[in-house]
Amino acid sequence: MNQDPVEETLCLLCQEPEVPDGVTRRGRFYCRTCDREWILEKRKIARVGKNILTSQEKTEFLLDCLSLFNSSMGLEDLLFRFTELIAERLKRDKVAVFITNLELGEIRLAYYTARQKSLQRAIKRIRLDYDLSFGVLIESMAKRESRFYVLKDELHPFYKFYSELTGTKSQLVIPIIYANTAVGMLAVDYEDDDYSVYLEDQEILQLVVGQFAVSLRNALLYSKSQNQSKNFQSLHTAALTLSKLYLDNHDEMVRMILLTLSGIVESSVACLIEKPVKSMKVKVFKLIRDLENFQISTETNTVDVSTVIHLLHAKETITVDPIDYPVFESIGVIGKEVVIIPISLENGTDCIFTLAKPDSRFPQDELEALNAFVSLARITMENANLYQNLSQKERLEKEIEIAKEIQATLLPRKIPDSKYLLFGGFMVPARGIGGDYYDFILSPNGKELFLCIGDVSGKGVAAGLVMATVRTILHSLVRVKDSPWEIVNDINNYLYTSYKDAATPRFMSLILIRWSLETNQILVSGAGHGLLYIHRNKTNLLEIVETGGVILGITGDISQFKNEDSIDLGKNDTLLMFTDGVTEALNKSDEQYGDHRLQESFLSSLSLEPKNQLERIYNEIRNFTMEAEQHDDITMVAIRKL
Predict the structure, then answer these.
(1) Would you state the pLDDT for residue 410?
(2) pTM for the model
(3) Which of 101, 169, 263, 562 falls 20 to 30 Å from 53 in CA-CA distance?
(4) Residue 348 — left, alpha, or beta (φ > 0 → left; ψ -120 to 50 → alpha)?
């Protein structure tokens, strides 16, 4: 090991009048005075201008960061204040925060602070694919390691573009880690490539980036919740608008549908391809949104069916790379990713909705919102056809049939496959379209299950529309919230806000269960829905559970009715949930089926699997009511723990 003469070796971190004690290895100086590493300086007078913070300055910076992270603020405000704090205290002109979205496989530049505001605007839309071919930035994220690098040493053209645009020569990158997952990265840009500039920045920023990760994660979840709330309101408003207007103006109806779809997901272009039955021509309606200048334009063209034949083969919602489909360029649908949503109308018309995003992909929650609105739009499109072709009576009957079919698709299409449970679900609406709702929502990892059953006030199309919207809200909320009560509270806010001034207010009772399948932890929140039954296999006893709570939609604040209780289920225990249409079913003598008969039927059918058990109970209800008219929806859910 070679050691330079002591009198020529200075440690820039110590900044002491005496020459510190230390050794030199591979061009780096290891100081035994301050126990830190620095780039070797072969000069007797330390170089100035390296922004060495005093202990007091470091302490003040850390305290300011902790104060910032302990406050509640939105995503944009958090990013602005944190990067400005770094720029001010560390004297760094250019600081960036990148955010990772592993669902979309991309990293986007969420915020960039610089004295040149024009530079901030110029690079705000930078996005990177989460691909190791991008080099050091993605490697730093994947390995969860801080890196300092010189941009000219990187091969990917992005680094040359970034360097020329921002004047950056080197960059310090620190991954932002939350729950052992990289949610983003903090980057500090330097206008020279001297390694001596970054060590202290790295040291102090690594102390705060862990706390920043928690604040960033919370801000991202809040931002996502706000976007979902906006989507719910858009769905509700657009559904009401479409149901009242445009039945006699087809083109204006299509324009409104495309405008709403593009607004839900901030799409640059939305398109409807419409092929009437037995026609060799298709009509292409296109709406283009200039997201930068807030301008909207529309186009309508007619093309040969051969031009779009591949799109007409789509049977379900899919996302594709437009490069793989030359047809998109020919009809002007251009972007990084395109979603295709096919529907078929009763008159034989095939319709394909396509939307494109300019520089990003579609997350799952946006796809769910699009599918929900297209289902509502389909009803309006069918109604428009009926308005033109059917008498008033025929139109109403057909509308109910269409809505019934669509509602059936909103109920669980298949029973979840779980090694922990057996499931059964059953619903018979009283008027073709029901206001009852049940669902099983299994997490992607198969370890958590949400169960629910609910009853919307009223019957028919109006109740069915509320049920469909609540389902959309619930499916979105269970992805971001664990607490059944928080989800119930959000659904109440939607119902109260949307219908408090309506001529016919809408209310809903609900039971929501969150079941952790591995730990068998079961949390139950009730909202005025009444009872559920549990048969204990070990003791052969029936347990009656009162779920409590208050009916949703009556008041905006239900905090005083908060309930979130836990229950336990043992091996072969069976749980039964039901709506009041079961116990209040009437025979010709106006006698109710009642709780007592339901309990007997439930206990006598325990030898059957839950699905068959519910069918047996329903047959006994029908034997009781005989030919009497069904006055309310009949819905039941049964779960057995294996």
Answers:
(1) 67
(2) 0.45
(3) 169
(4) left
CA 138, 139, 145, 148 dihedral sign is negative
Mean pLDDT along residues 591-596 = 94
Rounding to the nearest 10 degrees, give the CA dihedral for residues 230, 231, 232, 233. Answer: 50
**Residue 549, SS3 per DSSP:** coil
Q: Please give the structure tokens belonging to residue 499.
A: 């219908």
How would residue 544 be classed by pLDDT, with cut points 50, 70 and 90?
A: very high
pLDDT of residue 18: 45
Is 133 a residue whose pLDDT tops 70? yes
Give dist(CA 47, CA 231) in Å, integer: 56
Tell which residue, 457, 473, 413, has the closest CA to residue 552.
Answer: 457
Q: Tokens standing for 410?
A: 């909103």
Q: What would the pLDDT profile of 321-350 be if each residue is shown by its tens digit? A: 888 888 888 888 888 889 999 998 888 899
Whole-angstrom Cα distance, residue 452 to residue 446?
17
C-alpha 470/C-alpha 456 separation (Å) is 10
Tokens 């019957």 sit on residue: 459
Task: Give one DSSP letter per residue of 397-450, joined into a string.
Answer: HHHHHHHHHHHHHHS-SS----SSEEEEEEEE-SSSS-SEEEEEEE-TTSSEEE
Q: Assign 332 to helix, strand or coil.
A: coil
- Section 551-562 average pLDDT: 90
Q: According to the model, what pLDDT value does residue 471 have?
A: 86
pLDDT given for residue 43 in this prediction: 36
Decide: residue 540, CB within 10 A, 0-12 exposed, 13-18 middle, 19+ buried.
exposed
Which tokens belong to 348?
A: 């034989």
**Which of helix, strand or coil describes residue 524?**
strand
